[in-house]
């Protein structure tokens, strides 16, 4: 298996970026729900889980940028045979996933009232403390962080986090399994064994 994509398979870099992003998204959800379901408010373990959630989110943002750059500079393996409409919806689903993978970390960072202790190695200042917020949002638009944060928090948690991302992930995984089990084509194999 080579590093680059071919007409029939994804290369090792695309596979690594895909599966690492998928695992990090699951880790991000796990840390958030651990905090929500199993810790007391303001408990140290809740703070740790939240910092891990923030750190994973920032890592996802970096990986998604790398994924997009890699996708722009590499061919995409040919789609398995299907109607124009099926292939159209496949592309729409992929674009929607990419959009959400970009919007989730951005809205998470912009709607967070605390700094991120990135995997407890170094600190990333909260958006409220950045020059962009101070000069443009606060200085230019006259918004407080509380006013600014509400729509970003709503988009991140309620629209994307609770519903849309899960629908896209389950649709993506379900389509891959449908291709593998029902259509018996190579769609899933292109991103796994390549055989």
From TrEMBL:
Residues 10-194 form the Cytochrome b561 bacterial/Ni-hydrogenase domain. It holds the Pfam family Ni_hydr_CYTB. It comes from the Bacteria. It is found in: Cell membrane. The keyword RNA-binding does not apply. Keywords: Cell membrane, Electron transport, Heme, Iron, Membrane, Metal-binding, Transmembrane, Transmembrane helix, Transport. It is a multi-pass membrane protein. Its cofactor is heme b. SUPFAM superfamilies: Transmembrane di-heme cytochromes. The chain crosses the membrane at residues 16-34, 46-68, 88-110, 163-182. PANTHER family: CYTOCHROME B561 (PTHR30529), CYTOCHROME B561 BACTERIAL_NI-HYDROGENASE DOMAIN-CONTAINING PROTEIN (PTHR30529:SF7). Belongs to the cytochrome b561 family. This is Cytochrome b. The lineage of its organism: Bacteria, Pseudomonadati, Pseudomonadota, Gammaproteobacteria, Alteromonadales.
């Amino acid at each position: 298996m080579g590093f680059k994509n071919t007409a029939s398979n994804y290369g090792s870099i695309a596979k690594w970026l895909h599966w690492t992003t998928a695992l990090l998204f699951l880790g991000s959800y796990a840390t958030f729900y651990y905090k929500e379901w199993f810790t007391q408010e303001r408990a140290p373990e809740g703070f740790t889980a939240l910092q891990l959630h923030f750190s994973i989110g920032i890592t996802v943002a970096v990986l998604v940028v790398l994924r997009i750059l890699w996708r722009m500079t590499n061919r995409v393996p040919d789609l398995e045979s299907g109607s124009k409409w099926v292939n159209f919806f496949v592309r729409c689903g992929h674009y929607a996933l990419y959009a959400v993978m970009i919007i989730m970390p951005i809205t998470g960072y912009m709607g967070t009232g605390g700094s991120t202790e990135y995997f407890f190695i170094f600190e990333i200042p909260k958006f409220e403390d950045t020059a962009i917020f101070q000069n443009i949002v606060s200085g230019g638009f006259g918004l407080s962080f509380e006013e600014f944060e509400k729509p970003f928090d709503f988009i991140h948690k309620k629209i994307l986090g609770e519903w849309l991302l899960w629908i896209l992930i389950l649709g993506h995984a379900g389509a891959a399994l449908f291709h593998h089990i029902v259509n018996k084509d190579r769609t899933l194999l292109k991103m796994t064994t390549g055989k």
